Amino acid sequence: MMSTKKEATSLKNVFWVYPERNTARQREFEERRVWAPYRKVLESMGYRFGLVKPDDIHIEFDHERSVCFVNDARVTPRDTIFVTSMWTMPHQVVDTCNQLFLYSALETLGFFLPIPLKFANITVDKMATYLHLRECPVRHLPTSRIAAGRDVFTKDYAVAVANVKYPALVKPSYWAMGIGVCIAHNPEELHGLVGLARGADTAVVVQPFLSGASDYRVYVVNGEPVLIMKRSPRKDSLTANLATGGTAEYTKTLPSELRGSIDYIASRLPMPYMAMDFLHDGERFWFSEIEPDGALVFDKADELTDAMKVEAATKRFQAFVDGHSAHCAELNQ
């Protein structure tokens, strides 16, 4: 039986740690399509939703006691969950160190993090994800990772891309939303893109380009798929992301080819919630990436679809509550 707020927990707050460096347009988009629906679901369950910046969180420790504050309000491991995804888009780079060390401190203080620091670090980088999930039944595409440092002019990275087949997809290793995705048709075009990556201070991954591939996002709660989103790219787009004009269909029916991979990934990344992404090239599936805080985007497509999203979000947040209850029980031992 799932726990409720009245059972053995004093949980009050579910806070997303989120660097606030967005434009007004980005803030309006995210508030309307993600945060406001999350707030509504959590409040209906009896909990307070919050977005807090990394620099809103302060800690006092004097050997006898440790205290955590959000702004000037005290919070404890028993009353607060922090959702701690790593945010590493270009405008958030200045916050990366603070996120990394803050999450470590929160974890050490005893807070329940639905995204443990280890898994936040693994899943934010595509190559780290593939290495951690190397035995996934649905295989990942052959991938090279280029650090794109100050010496890229030497082309010493060429040894890592000697087996690349062109055209190749080139994309930042730890960005999101399809931003920065390009095609290289030959080594010289790749070199130009690596140079641009150097200017953006980002590593890139290089993979075979699958023209017109569909993207299957599987929303998973406690190891079980609760919703599947099939994204299809716009005719002239390199990605199927909704942000780049892709279209989406939602279903609860999981393609049978993915069941073994869902179970494997869940065993290797034991988190209460994540989104698993797979590509389909028309013939077979390929493992793409993990989004530990994969957003359920509420775009008012139709009442049935929105109802499925509300149900998935409710199951997700109940898994957070149950995980927090189990965590607090361990603290009592």
TrEMBL record:
Name of this protein: RimK-like ATP-grasp domain-containing protein
GO molecular function: ATP binding; metal ion binding; ribosomal S6-glutamic acid ligase activity
Domain ATP-grasp: 130-321
Any Pfam family: RimK
Gene3D superfamilies documented for this protein: ATP-grasp fold, A domain (3.30.1490.20), ATP-grasp fold, B domain (3.30.470.20)
GO cellular component: cytoplasm
Keywords per UniProt: ATP-binding, Nucleotide-binding
Signal peptide start and end residues: none
Organism: Bradyrhizobium huanghuaihaiense
GO biological process, one term: SOS response
SUPFAM superfamilies: Glutathione synthetase ATP-binding domain-like
